[in-house]
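Training component of the fellowship. As part of building independent skills, the fellow (R.M.) carried out the full modelling exercise for a liganded target. The chosen ligand was 2-phosphoglycolic acid. The inputs are recorded below so that the supervisory panel can assess the work.
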Amino acid sequence: MLVANWKMNCPPAADWKAAVKKLAALKKEGIETVICPPFVSLEKIAALLKESGVKLGAQDVFWEKSGAFTGEISAEMLRNAGVEYAIIGHSERRRFLGETDEMINKKIASALKAGLTAILCVGEDSSVRRRGKKAAEKFVKNQLEKDLKGLPDVKSQKPKIIAAYEPVWAIGTGTPDTPADAAEMAGFIKEILNSKFRIPNFSVLYGGSVNGKNAGDFINSPEIDGALVGGASLKPEEFLKIAAAAGAKR
Ligand code: PGA
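Fellow's submitted model of the complex:
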């Protein structure tokens, strides 16, 4: 699975026409591609993706259905706009907007209720990582436990929740994690989700400075099921290189 997180950028939809056709062809090989544009571009990108098999995703959801919540957009509204996936708990929201695990927990519950697949982002920052791998694992475990706490019938949600391991220090820095360390953490996340939440075959993506050159090193690991891509997802030709690396794994 490849998820394009366009963040607060709107690449012209017309530039993506040919790329969407190529991504659609990969769908036949079992590779799911999701494009997550800013809210204001959802309609335009939905039209572009129509009947291509490439899925539409949102970068966030709000947990209430409707009401006096200025600036927010509910999971249900997104579902009605053709959205099937939602990135939840991205570190940029945790850091810059004060999003807490409690808020993320509510967002996941509302996304699942609306029928969206939640892409839950977890990952340690550099201060935690400096304390070593065990500290990073403990940090990520704590995030997972809080973010997924008490979700109604989480066992039956497969494949409605996907985790993305995104070490904060690797995001947008041009310095990705090593494929070996990322794979180890992905394996650790799978173990926790399996034992604690009894979700078998849980998909874990890696995100953080993935590009056309290094994507294969991550995606080829059996523990890593795909990539969540920020900067390199803004240019169709670069994203297609990443998609080609995913295709080569099959
Ligand atoms: P990046 O971002 O690929 O630009 O590092 C990844 C993300 O934030 O999801």
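The panel noted the following from the submitted structure. The two ends are 11 Å apart (CA to CA). The pocket of 2-phosphoglycolic acid is lined by residues 5, 166, 171-172, 207-210, 228-232 (CB under 6 Å).
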